[in-house]
Write a structure and sequence with these properties.
Length: 324
């Protein structure tokens, strides 16, 4: 029985063997019919026809099945080849991506190092500019000590204060993490403190209040002109607003309006502007500087003498940012 099973198993492996087995089975069945029916000629003829037909059908069927199986095997082989090629391409792609990633990381690091070097250089430049301005201020101070006329000494002192106001901008820049923007509130605090120390002896109990919108920052092109404007207006208030009084208040405010424009206010509760005085056509050098700087900033300036002096400056160019 085992041998018969092996025979049939091996016979089914090729189309010819399968057809041959079908022919043998057909002949066996035909002989059985001859034995039962008892008409050997007719039964034998039928058996031969049945055997040939069975052999032909079995051979054709098995041949078609064999070809189909070969096609599937060829397709499987081709598929395995494609899979290997795909795997190799994937490996090459991963290697290329890894190499490119390393190259980008190196390039980014080089850019970062370059930016840090530039930041250091810019801070060094601001530091040196500040030092040079302070040297100029010191030279003016030494020169003023050789002068006896109080009016000329006062002019020297005003020039020194303007130079120090510019130096303070550069000092804030090189000491800040962001060398492009200046925290104007912090800058004005230091600037007004310096001005107050200059006029401390003659200003008595004059107080300067500062109100800058939190986080407003200016770039250097606007910080220096705005700082000089504040310096001139606050200095004028200290010198002229409280001549007949022992106390008073100077207020410095800056805000950004709904249109994104800068509004700067410098007010005091002093004696106000003299009768007939036109601040827009004054010979006062400080006010002339203020008008020149406002024009430089594409701004507008207005004066009002009510309960003191109120100066409003509107700057149309929006170069502020909100610190986060």
């Amino acid at each position: 029985m085992r041998r018969l099973t092996e025979f049939f198993s091996s016979a089914l492996r090729t189309p010819f063997r399968l057809a041959l087995v079908s022919l043998v089975l057909s002949e066996i069945i035909a002989l059985g019919v001859v034995y039962v029916v008892g008409v050997p000629e007719i039964a034998l003829l039928g058996a031969v026809i049945a055997g040939i037909s069975g052999f032909s059908i079995a051979y054709a069927t098995s041949q078609s099945s064999f070809r189909y199986r070969n096609e599937i095997e060829e397709q499987n082989i081709q598929l395995e080849i494609y899979q290997r090629e795909l795997q190799m391409a994937k490996g090459h792609l991963e290697e290329r991506v890894e190499e490119r990633t390393k190259e980008l990381l190196i390039a980014n690091q080089q850019i970062q190092n370059s930016l840090e070097e530039k930041d250091v250089l810019l801070k060094e430049i601001h530091h040196r500019v500040k030092n040079n301005l302070q040297i100029v201020s010191s030279l003016l101070y030494l020169q003023s000590r050789r002068i006896r006329e109080e009016e000329i000494v006062a002019l020297f002192e005003e020039s020194r204060q303007r130079i120090l106001a510019m130096a303070l901008v550069h000092e804030n820049l090189y000491s800040s993490d962001d060398i492009a923007w200046i925290d104007f509130s912090n800058y004005v605090q230091k600037l007004v403190l310096d001005i107050a120390q200059i006029f401390e002896a003659e200003s008595g109990k004059v107080v300067c209040e500062i109100s800058i919108d939190p986080g407003i920052s200016l770039d250097i092109d606007y910080a220096i002109p705005c700082g000089l404007i504040v310096n001139e207006l606050v200095s004028n208030a200290y010198k002229h607003a409280f001549k007949d009084r022992q106390a008073g208040v100077i207020n410095v405010r800056m805000l950004t309006n709904k249109s994104g424009e800068i509004e700067l206010f410098v007010t005091d509760n002093g004696c106000g502007l003299p009768a007939g005085f036109d601040p827009n056509h004054a010979n006062n050098m400080g006010l002339q500087i203020v008008h020149m700087l406002v024009n430089q900033l594409n701004g507008q300036i207005s004066f009002e003498s009510k309960d003191g002096t109120n100066v409003k400056i509107l700057i149309f160019a929006t170069t502020t940012k909100k610190s986060t």
